[in-house]
Design goal:
The chain is an alpha/beta fold and about 625 residues long. The protein folds into two domains: about 1-55 and about 100-365, ABC transporter transmembrane region fold (Up-down Bundle), CATH 1.20.1560; about 390-625, P-loop containing nucleotide triphosphate hydrolases (Rossmann fold, 3-Layer(aba) Sandwich). The protein has 24 helices and ten strands. It has helices at about 1-10, 15-35, 40-45, 50-55, 60-65, 75-80, 80-100, 105-155, 155-160, 165-205, 210-255, 255-260, 265-320, 325-370, 430-435, 460-465, 480-485, 490-500, 505-510, 530-540, 560-570, 585-590, 605-610, 615-625; strands at about 390-400, 400-415, 415-420, 445-450, 450, 465-470, 545-550, 575-580, 590-595, 600-605. The strands form two sheets. It has a six-stranded mixed beta sheet with strand order 6-7-8-3-9-10, with helices on both faces. A four-stranded antiparallel beta sheet has the order 2-1-4-5, with helices on one face. Helix 10 (about 165-205) runs antiparallel to helix 11, helix 10 (about 165-205) packs antiparallel against helix 14 and helix 11 runs parallel beside helix 14. It starts with a helix and ends with a helix. The relative contact order is 0.08. Bound molecules: adenosine-5'-triphosphate. Adenosine-5'-triphosphate (ATP) binds next to strand 1 and helix 15.
Amino acid sequence: MRSFRRVLSYLRPYRAPLAGSIICTVFFTLFSGLMVWMLMPTLETLFNTDTISSFTSVAPSTVESGGEFSPGEEEPQATLTGLERVKVRMKDATRALITRPDPRDTLIRLCLVYLLVVVLKNMFAYLQGYLMAVAENGLIKDLRVDLFDKMSRLSLGFFELNRTGVLLARVTSDVTMVNRSAAAVLVEFVKHPLSVLVFLGMAVVINLQLTLISLLILPISFWIITRIGRSLFRRTGRLQTEMGNITAILSETLGGIRVVKAFDMEEFETRRFAAAAGAYYRKALRLARIGKMAAPSSEVAATIVGIGILYLGGISILGGTTSLTPDEFITFLLVIFSMFHPIREIGKAYGKLQQGLAAAERVFDIIDTPPVIVDAPDARPITEFSGTVAFRNLSFEYVPGSTVLSGIDLSLRKGEIVALVGPSGAGKSTLADMLPRFYDPVDGAVEIDGVDIRHYTISSIRRLIGVVTQDTILFNESVARNIAYGLDDFAIEAVQKAARAANAHTFVESLPEGYETLVGDRGVRLSGGQRQRLAIARAIMKNPPILILDEATSSLDTESEMLVQEAIEHLMRERTTLVIAHRLSTVQKADLIVVLDEGRITQQGTHEELMTDEEGLYRRLYTLQFQT
Ligand code: ATP
């Protein structure tokens, strides 16, 4: 219920179209009822003209002159029950509208009224649908944006625990499902019960006895429909999970399509995808087994009701024990049948509501996940960095009990280049991630100018820091926008200057549309070296005083390598740099080399100092890794 109220809160901005839609629904339902009701005068006109006059006290002259029609207070009505009196009044009113002395004129009027009713009914149907779409799509948009906003603010740890494909499914299909529970259901819960009421009212007016008999049988079909609805709900939930698996595999494969191809794994990935698609297929069939039963079984149930009414009503007409006229009887049958559709829809709406609420819970779960890394209540912005960045006795673990970094003590003075080296898995990237607060230490602290960075706002710290990672992430935007990423306002000259400093200007100029060229998803239309240089230009453009650089390990050709290297040197100039070093030139140039092994600092010093320790890890690493 709480989720439902929350979903409704997303509809608040769309109150007006929603209310309009509900009002249109009411009119639509009334006109639908009228359409069925009109069957009576139609049958009368075509087959039983005598009845018309016997029911009315219309003086031909009154009709001809088009004057007000007033049902006569004549004898037959005096003995009528209340309901029958209502019926006679309603029929009289209908006749007053339609009946003319000449049956041909009546027929023409009947056709015109039908036309008017059907046009009005469908006009309201259209308006209802359109206004509903305004509210529904508004809800979907707002909820999606909210979800995306909350998701993008969550800490990195969250994304390590949740598969991308599953998150994609949340934003796409789950949000659409949530919509079902709210907007559509709101209208459906008005429309269908109202239809049932209108038809039920008409049935009661036509014949109370037969209506009561129908009501005895109706609950059976209602029971069948709601049972099927509930079962459908459970199964659709499972189907949704399978869909999550499909999107997960899809996004993994598309994201890593190069690797898939390089390893000739297309067939393997297709098998993996086929297995997920097969699981979906089986669940969908199970769903269909129940779902497809709904329509035929409810039709059988409805027909049984109809046959029952036909038999009982027919017997009383044949036996002359009822005042029911043939046109009333046929209209009554039609009214009862018209009730089945809305009843079935109420059952379905109930199922949709359940499905939607389940999806809403999945969506709200993410919206409600608190980010682990947040600003302290008294956090203040940091505007400049003037002295040192320091890691103080810092320890960290991703999973409780399995230490990744321990007792790290390290200082970077302003303007220095500090190189982190060590075997794979030693904790170099993790240590670098501590600085922009991608993770918080379990013990100890990171300090800027002697102040624990947790006293500062996260966004102000991140403004001071530039990060250039191994895998350069570019967005499918223009080159200029990629370089100026994060800046609302930028001069193209500044972008060009950064590109020049990053050795990227020449190749950008040669692209078909220069700085306005789109780079493709993740920059696929560029070479590895070009992507790296753009990432470097981006960091130069941001111009942060502190730089974290994870040097690319993948080797480029000599010329490209030289261009990238030069760009990096430009980038590091006059900045304080923590570099995860994979290159000989970088380690040799570093003011301090820090050797990490199994999460601890085992050696630190300059290249020359560390090389003197013959047993040291650095010397071994250097010989293995750098001296090629
Ligand atoms: P490389 O040079 O190979 O990139 P690294 O020195 O940068 O390695 P880290 O990536 O910092 O090493 O990883 C340090 C340790 O932490 C490794 O044992 C790794 O398995 C573990 N680790 C890294 N990221 C996570 C994570 N998100 N969750 C759990 N463990 C992790």
